[in-house]
């Protein structure tokens, strides 16, 4: 969700484009909650989702828990604590802290904070009941992990479903009747197999079933929307409704297919929030509820992410405000009446919520489990775990309108960015180093993209190898040793002060501070994917993503045997195994990106005017299993010395 994709950031308009953008963002429920609550105008997160979510759940700044997205199937057997994706095994999670304070804990939706072992999942982090998917995204309809969902081709060849249920009696890949895309052409407002509908129904049921009279066990519900992440998919009702709303208010046709999809998805999210808050009110719980709404990073401005951070600069994957300053507010009856209706300008970090919730639950936020693990890690010469970074007293400061505990400190945003308010330092090469207009993406964006001018997805990878198409494709620029901005006076980061003699002392001081912070970066060896992880999930998790290390007694259903697999599932396992053979892996990494990027360029967005869309193609899908088998067959039939025929003999 971009800065400009939420209604309360579209309150004023001076130009025709700003007015059109205002008409397209339909978030009345969110606007009302923000107006009756407190908007956290200076809430900072990390530039991408996995590290941001790991920071949120663990209470550490992202550079102290996870600095880059790592394949969920990665494993380093030499480090059983940190040798996996996501939050290290022995860090305490937010769910465990509030559970210690007596709360009933529930998790619904996107996780993206690790899954290698049972300790990495929401259930392992203290949530009693979970219904989730593990990766960055999946398909909203069929719940699989296609290339447009994950933005990569994984060693498991994007073959699996990603939807899991966890509780004390059942831990297994979801296999209900809604594990299908059969309803995607439904004319219903909210078709039953749309993933967000499934998540909404689960959260509504949690609210209905909660015993509100049991004051010793209050409710902690973490509803983690898939919206507005790719793939851009929405029920037909909302796709038509958003265009109707814009037209009825005198607006123009939304000229980008992706912008229309994103605005329809935004409206769906808003309706869901209304339904959830209405359920709390009906239950009589609203007057003692603290609702926190936050996004994990700034909006992605690459195609097909298609968010808009106007007037902020940059987007997801960059350290500019558009990548790390997030839409965040709090609401609910728990907020003192005298505090409501304000904009809070104090600095708040995504890592602070762990400590805020610990304090509300009446427990000490100190992570004693991590401290104990450090004794073992030191003895084995492995990277130790950082202490909790979340600040105490932050919620009181927000309620009181005080600057808060981060007022006189520098905030370590990333290895390449530092905030010493009101100054911000951004260093090195940065993708998406641009300002978008009030209507983005648009027909100009689509035309540029299909002609090879970007903005492409900067993190596209094949079998854990990143593909770099060059700076122009990613709208990438270079801040070198440092770009310096006064973000209070210049929130859009339009005026670089780094060459101004008046700011040389400030620049030098911040470069030095960032260098000192970088000595604390958490950089354990996470490892790479072993195809055995894929095999485990095919057999133990029933073709779903899920834990694959130390899983004895985790799954509640017995594993499948090879005889239980379909013919196609056996082909998938064969293809996964082929990716482990060096010459085949190299061929795949060279050959498939051309096919995949060509597929994305044809299907990623469309220019729409007068009710028709150009650049339109029929919906396509990539069968990665077949592509790998075909590529392997080509190499096997080659008479060159690289041919691995002997492997198959």
From TrEMBL:
GO terms for molecular function: metal ion binding; sulfuric ester hydrolase activity. CDD domains: 4-S. Residues 26-363 form the Sulfatase N-terminal domain. It comes from the Eukaryota. Keywords: Calcium, Glycoprotein, Metal-binding. Residues 1-21 are annotated as: Disordered. Pfam families: Sulfatase (PF00884). PANTHER family: ARYLSULFATASE, ARYLSULFATASE B. This is ARSJ protein. It comes from Symbiodinium natans.
């Amino acid at each position: 969700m971009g800065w400009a994709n939420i209604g309360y950031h579209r309150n004023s308009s001076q130009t025709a484009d700003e007015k059109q953008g205002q008409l397209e963002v339909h978030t009345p429920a969110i606007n009302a909650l923000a107006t009756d609550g407190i908007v956290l105008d200076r809430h900072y997160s990390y530039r991408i989702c996995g590290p941001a979510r790991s920071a949120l759940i663990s209470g550490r700044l992202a550079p102290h828990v996870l600095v880059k997205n790592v394949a969920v199937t990665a494993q380093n057997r030499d480090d059983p604590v940190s040798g996996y994706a996501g939050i290290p095994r022995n860090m305490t999670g937010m769910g465990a802290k509030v559970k210690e304070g007596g709360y009933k804990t529930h998790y619904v939706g996107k996780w993206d904070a690790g899954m290698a072992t049972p300790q990495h999942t929401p259930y392992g982090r203290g949530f009693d009941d979970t219904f989730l998917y593990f990766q960055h995204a999946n398909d909203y309809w069929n719940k699989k992990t296609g290339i447009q969902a994950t933005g990569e081709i994984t060693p498991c060849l994007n073959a699996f479903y990603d939807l899991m249920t966890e509780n004390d009696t059942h831990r297994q890949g979801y296999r209900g009747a809604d594990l299908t895309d059969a309803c995607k052409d439904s004319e219903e407002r909210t078709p039953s197999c749309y993933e967000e509908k499934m998540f909404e129904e689960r959260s509504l049921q949690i609210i209905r079933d909660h015993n509100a009279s049991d004051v010793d066990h209050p409710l902690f519900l973490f509803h983690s929307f898939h919206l507005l992440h790719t793939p851009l998919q929405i029920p037909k009702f909302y796709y038509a409704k958003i265009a109707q709303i814009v037209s009825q208010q005198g607006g123009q046709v939304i000229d980008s297919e992706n912008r229309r999809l994103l605005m329809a998805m935004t409206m769906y999210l808003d309706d869901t929030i209304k339904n959830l808050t209405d359920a709390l009110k009906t239950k009589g719980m609203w007057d003692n509820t603290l609702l926190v709404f936050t996004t994990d990073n700034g909006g992605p401005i690459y195609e097909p992410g298609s968010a808009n951070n106007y007037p902020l600069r940059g987007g997801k994957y960059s350290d500019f405000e558009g990548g790390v300053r997030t839409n965040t507010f709090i609401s609910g009856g728990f907020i003192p009446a005298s505090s409501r209706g304000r904009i809070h300008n104090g600095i708040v970090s995504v890592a602070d919520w762990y400590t805020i919730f610990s304090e509300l639950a009446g427990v000490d936020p100190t992570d004693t489990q991590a401290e104990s693990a450090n004794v073992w890690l030191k003895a084995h010469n492995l990277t130790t775990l950082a202490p909790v970074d979340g600040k105490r007293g932050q919620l009181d400061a927000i309620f009181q309108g005080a600057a808060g505990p981060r007022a006189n400190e520098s905030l370590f945003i990333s290895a390449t960015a530092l905030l010493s308010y009101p100054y911000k330092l951004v260093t090195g090469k940065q993708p998406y180093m641009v300002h978008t207009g009030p209507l983005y993406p648009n027909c100009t964006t689509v035309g540029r993209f299909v002609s090879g001018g970007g903005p492409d997805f900067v993190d596209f990878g094949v079998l854990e190898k990143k593909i770099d198409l060059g700076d122009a494709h990613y709208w990438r620029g270079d801040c070198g040793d440092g770009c310096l901005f006064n973000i209070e006076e210049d929130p859009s980061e339009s005026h670089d002060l780094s060459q101004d003699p008046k700011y040389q002392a400030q620049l030098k001081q911040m470069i030095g501070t960032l260098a000192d912070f970088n000595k604390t970066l958490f950089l354990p060896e996470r490892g790479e994917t072993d195809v055995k992880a894929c095999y485990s999930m095919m057999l133990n998790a029933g073709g779903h993503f899920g834990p694959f290390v130390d899983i004895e007694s985790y799954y509640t259903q017995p594993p499948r045997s090879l005889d239980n697999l379909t013919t196609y599932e056996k082909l998938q396992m064969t293809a996964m195994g082929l990716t482990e053979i060096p010459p085949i892996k190299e061929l795949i990494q060279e050959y498939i990106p051309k096919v995949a990027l060509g597929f994305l360029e044809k299907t990623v967005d469309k220019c729409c005017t007068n009710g028709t869309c150009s650049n339109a193609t029929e919906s396509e899908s990539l069968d990665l299993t077949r592509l790998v088998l075909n590529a392997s067959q080509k190499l096997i039939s080659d008479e060159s010395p690289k041919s691995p025929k002997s492997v198959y003999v």
